[in-house]
Each structure stands twice: as structure tokens, then as C-alpha cells.
Specification:
With about 100 residues, the protein is mainly alpha-helical. Helices cover about 60% and strands about 5% of the residues. It contains five helices and two strands, in the order αββαααα. Strands 1-2 form a two-stranded antiparallel sheet. Helix 1 packs across helix 5 and helix 3 packs across helix 5. The radius of gyration is 16 Å and the shape is globular. The termini are far apart.
């Protein structure tokens, strides 16, 4: 019984990791297609108007980035980032992608 429980936990952990990887991959596509590179850099790609996001996942958890993407001014009233019209799925995918940047 204990072996079965450990096996089920391992399968669940693998499923969660795959879902997170899939969300991050969708977020990377959304980042590229939404024009985020017009203001931000990741690595050597993009425009340095806004913060470099190459290692943003080391500084902030994905949950914070999701709140930021929903309403930047609510997180920091003097933020220069505009409010984006994103679906909740886009917010979650972008936050997963940004959280993976380490």
C-alpha cells in the first residue's frame, strides 16, 4: 500500500511539472506575440526601455507576476507599464514563463 501511495505521489509530481512546463511554453509564445520585447529584454533579445526580465523568476514568484500583469498600477502606482488586456489564461501562462526565467 505504501509503495502504491509513493508511486501515485510521484505521478502527480510529474503531471504538475509537465503542466508548469506547458504553461511556461505557452507564456513564452504569448510574450513573443504580445509585443513584450518592444519594451523588455530577455537575454540579448528585445528593447531596453523597461526592466531586463532575463532573471525575473529569481526575484519574484509567479504569483506576484500574475498580479502585476493583471494590474501593474495596483502593484506600484507609479509604474510605467500600461495595463494590458490579457485573459486570465494569458496572465497565468505569462507568469509561468516569467517565473521560469532564472
Amino acid at each position: 500500500m505504501k509503495t502504491l501511495l509513493v508511486g501515485a505521489c510521484l505521478l502527480l509530481a510529474v503531471a504538475v511539472a509537465e503542466a508548469q512546463d506547458n504553461a511556461a511554453a505557452l507564456g513564452e509564445v504569448a510574450f513573443k506575440n504580445s509585443g513584450c520585447f518592444n519594451c523588455h529584454m530577455i537575454g540579448k533579445v528585445g528593447t531596453p526601455l523597461g526592466p531586463d526580465l532575463s532573471y525575473i523568476g529569481q526575484k519574484f514568484p509567479a504569483e506576484y507576476m500574475a498580479r502585476w500583469l493583471r494590474d501593474p498600477a495596483l502593484q506600484r502606482p507609479n509604474a510605467h507599464m500600461p495595463a494590458l488586456e490579457l485573459t486570465e489564461a494569458q496572465v497565468r501562462a505569462l507568469a509561468a514563463y516569467l517565473g521560469s526565467l532564472r
